[in-house]
Amino acid sequence: MDFQLTSEQRALQAGMRELLAARFDREALRAAVERPGLDRALWRALGEAGFFALRLPEDEGGVGLGLPEAVLLFEEAGRALLPGPLVATHLAAGAVKGAASGETVVTRVDGGLVSWLAEADHVQGDAAGATPLRSVDPLTPLHRIPGTRTAEPPEAVLLTAAEQLGSAARTTQMAVQHARERTQFGQPVGSFQAVKHLCADMLVRTEVARVAVYAAAVTGDAREIAGAKLLADEAAVRGARDCLQVHGGMGFTWEADVHLHLKRAWVRAEQWQSAERACELLAAAL
């Protein structure tokens, strides 16, 4: 079986990267951090680009593509640290009026958590008794919901893994770029073996996660999706930590973007399917 991206898939991914570069660049990211809130104009632009309606049939106003293509778009969203209840709104397309076009912001109860509750126009699930929770990520407002955690939609787990994959790829790129540009003792820090090892490990984890995420998007198997989420979570969290290490003291400053990737990765690792839940699912299948 050929898992190489087709020319159409590469064009789709490149188009989303160009859209986000134009509408949500680093300046927009930092502005969102300083003034948290959902950019409704950007949300509608995503709707116009088919981000939410991607998997809807064409006769229902959608694009008519599948889960592999959705993974590519969510990978780009993770790379850009795009905020908002992307997964919930994408899954609600066709079921909630206005979700597909980006006119309606949809959030969904994820076990004991729900994100962007105050900004959402529609909430799927019972959010009664929700209490604000201080989120480590400044771009992911959270509320805690009383009750037990429920089963997660496999598609939500996989799309979250795709976001983690995009973040892991971006922090790897950031680390390599810094290692090439930053000099110490008259040479780039990337020439030092310890830094080389960090960057190499980041790349390996990212590419292993990429294979798992892409394969799970083709099969749609819940166990493979759980494995892909585990690998993507590890690639995103450990990648951001190693990126901080490569940046040195600069990486810990508020002005650097590395900490934003780490904080988002921590939050995503607990969303839709935690590592504990994924391990339980895989163990039960043995």
Could you characterize what this model shows?
- It is a single chain.
- It is globular, with a radius of gyration of 19 Å.
- Strand 6 and strand 7 form a beta hairpin.
- It has 10 helices and 7 strands.
- The chain folds into 2 domains: 100 residues, Acyl-CoA dehydrogenase/oxidase, N-terminal domain (Butyryl-Coa Dehydrogenase, subunit A, domain 1), CATH 1.10.540.10; 131 residues, Butyryl-CoA Dehydrogenase, subunit A, domain 3 (Up-down Bundle).
- The protein is mainly alpha-helical.
- The mean pLDDT is 93.
The top-level CATH class of the largest domain is Mainly Alpha
Our count of domains comes out at 2
Overall morphology: globular
CATH topology of the largest domain: Butyryl-CoA Dehydrogenase, subunit A, domain 3
**Helix content, binned percent:** 55-70%
- CA radius of gyration: 19 Å
Low-confidence stretches: none
Query: What is the CATH architecture term of the largest domain?
Result: Up-down Bundle
Short description:
This protein has 286 residues and is mainly alpha-helical.
Which tags fit this structure?
mainly alpha, 286 residues, two-stranded parallel ribbon, Butyryl-CoA Dehydrogenase, subunit A, domain 3, 56% helix, Butyryl-Coa Dehydrogenase, subunit A, domain 1, 10 helices
Give me the secondary-structure topology.
Blueprint: H1 7-23, H2 26-34, H3 40-48, H4 67-80, H5 86-92, E1 106-108, E2 113-115, E3 122-124, E4 131-133, E5 142-144, H6 154-181, E6 183-184, E7 187-188, H7 193-219, H8 222-247, H9 258-270, H10 275-284
Parallel strand pairs: 1-3
Antiparallel strand pairs: 2-5, 4-5, 6-7
Helix pairs in contact: 1-4, 4-6, 6-7, 6-8, 6-9, 7-8, 8-9, 8-10
